[in-house]
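Fold in tokens:
===
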Amino acid sequence: MTATPRPKGHPGYSEVLPRVPESAEVARRLVRAALAAWGQEELIEDAALVVTELVSNAVRHAPLSVIRVIVTRPTDTLIRVGVVDRAHSVPLLRTDSNGDDTRGRGLLLVEAYTDQWGTEVYPWGKQVWGELKCKGGS
């Protein structure tokens, strides 16, 4: 896990992980550590669910063997949880039920548990992120 200084005075946390399902647990630990450091314990469960879904999508769709999980505080009032991969395809929010298929609904959870979410496209890949509003604390 690495922490880097940010303009707002809050460190950003990131970690490169193998693109395997087991990385979701490591990502949740990173989220817990960052939010505890920022005094945002009440957001831990929601942020952990969000990062789990984002990692799951990257594991399923990214082409390379690694992903990067990022937890930042872009402002004093927002926490951003993101997963970076080398895929160029932008995820789409599925609103159809598609019968009994339970796959493909992770972004519905991301949308439900974040104040906003989106995708930043880069020449070499993308970051899918979700933002949660801070509650009191530092």
